[in-house]
Amino acid sequence: MSLQFALCISTLLFLAGIGTPIGYSTILASIVYLIVAGQDIALAAETALWGLYDSFIILAVPLFIVAANIMNAGTISDRLLSFCISCVGRFRGGLGHVNVVASLIFSGMSGSAIADAAGIGKIIIEMMTKGNRFPAGYAAAITAASATIGPIIPPSIPMVMYALVSDQSIGYLFLAGIIPGLFIGFILMSLNYIIASVRNFPKDEAVSLREMPKITLNAFPALLMPGILLYGIYGGVVTPTEAAAVAATYALLLAGFFYRALKISTLYEIFVRSARSSATIGLVIAGALILNYIVASENIPNQLSSYLVGLDIHPLVFILCVNLLLLFLGTLLEATTIILVIIPLFIPACADLGIDLIHFGVIAVINTMIGLITPPFGMLLFVINAVTKIPLREIIRETWIFMAVLISSLMVLILFPEIVLWLPEKFGYVSAYQ
After folding, report:
1. Which of 130, 172, 212, 280 has a Cα at 20 to 30 A from 23?
2. 142 Cβ neighbours under 8 A, 6+ residues apart
3. SS3 breakdown of the chain: % helix, strand, coil, rounded to 5?
4. What digits encode the pLDDT tens for the residues 23-72?
5. C-alpha to C-alpha distance for 413 and 101, rounded to whole angstroms
6. How far does the chain reach from its first CA to its final CA, in angstroms?
7. Helix (H) and strand (E) counts in the chain
């Protein structure tokens, strides 16, 4: 490791440790490297700008953010929630099941765990805690756990970012996330049923069969969005980035004209809020692009790959060790940073060891989502605390059981890659494991 790279990493860790936003920390640390290495610091701006302009795929990120914010501001989320309650609210721990099913459906539109938790998650928590039907900490914990499904099922902002750094097909990544997302949803609902039975949580009043068609029809236009997106991408009608534009446009038409639930003033606020969120992510991406340039200049990925291959390490042992590292980093760093900065270091080694990069990408994204609910810096814990005012200690106390189940599900998906790769292979993908 060169002196300049050691100073770069030290600066990054110091700035992040004192609370500097990770985007600024990465950019400043990269500038330190360029100065000490005697390179033109304008390279930082040039690398970031060219990286952003050359990656058409990044446009999907702000578009999915806009789509999610429109759905939260309109009545789309409320209509989806009513539909979920009519389907699974009648079972023991009903609103807990509603929480998971709503995340499964909402994930097909927003691609963001934060948007899921801050939007429809907040509404369900208020319903669960009304009249002390569920403990506040449990309602927040299952909301955080179910929100992790959002970026696994397409569309997925983290998978867009992984595709950016790994040069893999977004279409196959999206397909590979469907079955794991449904699998994790089923596991969470099973756990909720067991806990609800043990702790005697209430059922929701069953919706009569006479009312079901009306509720379903009311939510049907919103339920169409995931189908439209998936057909558009896998039917070859649109690219994933264009599909993000379709999602935002469809959400706008649905909330503004069909449901008549948006005002011009509200739309302005949505665009401002979306621009701020996009700018925050954009800074992180820009910093990661500069840092990745530095890492490539230092030849670190190839050195790491050669070292690991030289050890003759088994691919399964390698992927387990990487996931343990990612689980640890998830307690300290946000998902975007891990995907854009840390994961690219292991991609060459994965290719050399014969590990399928689509399988690795899905596993890595699930891993970083678990990090969102992992103390002490789990982002979802702070988001839910901010929007509901439920004390963090209550949320964390109830979160451990969900973390254990999510990690167990991750292990199953690591050991049985066919669960992840079955659907992409049906659409023509050729796995590295074959």
Report:
1. 172
2. 96, 99, 100, 188, 192, 398, 402
3. 80, 0, 20
4. 788 889 888 888 888 888 888 888 877 777 766 667 777 887 787 777 76
5. 21
6. 37
7. 22, 0
What's the angle, vertex CA 237, arms to CA 236 and CA 241, rounded to 5? 95
235 SS3 class: coil
Q: Could you tell me where the DSSP H helices lie in 111-169?
A: 113-116, 122-129, 136-147, 157-166
Place of tokens 């936003």: 21
The residue among 127, 136, 126, 140 whose CA lies nearest residue 94 is 127
- Nearest partner of 327 among 355, 357, 361, 364, judged by Cα: 364
Question: What is the chain's length?
Answer: 434
Both tokens of residue 192? Answer: 């909720």
Single-letter residue type at 112: S
What are the boundaries of each domain within the chain? 3-426
Angle at 399 between CA 284 and CA 390, to 5 degrees: 80
- Name residue, tokens 């980093």: 329
Distance CA 434, CA 430 (A): 7
Rounded distance between C-alpha atoms, residue 342 and residue 164, angstroms: 13
Identity of residue 207: V
- Signed CA dihedral, 186, 417, 108, 396: sign only: positive
| 3-state SS assignment for residue 387 | helix
Whether the CB-CB separation of 284 and 83 falls below 8 Å is answered with no
Cα(250)–Cα(242) distance, rounded to whole angstroms?
12
Rounded to whole angstroms, how far apart are CA atoms 335 and 374?
12
Cα–Cα distance measured from residue 271 to residue 113, given in angstroms and rounded to the nearest whole number? 19
Residue among 336, 75, 353, 386 at smallest CA distance from 222: 75
Task: Report the distance separating Cα 296 and Cα 49, nearest Å.
Answer: 17
Longest dimension (CA), the chain: 74
Q: Report the C-alpha gap between 88 and 203 in whole angstroms.
A: 9
Model pLDDT for residues 144-191, shown as the tens digit of each residue:
888 888 788 877 778 888 988 888 888 889 889 999 999 999 999 999
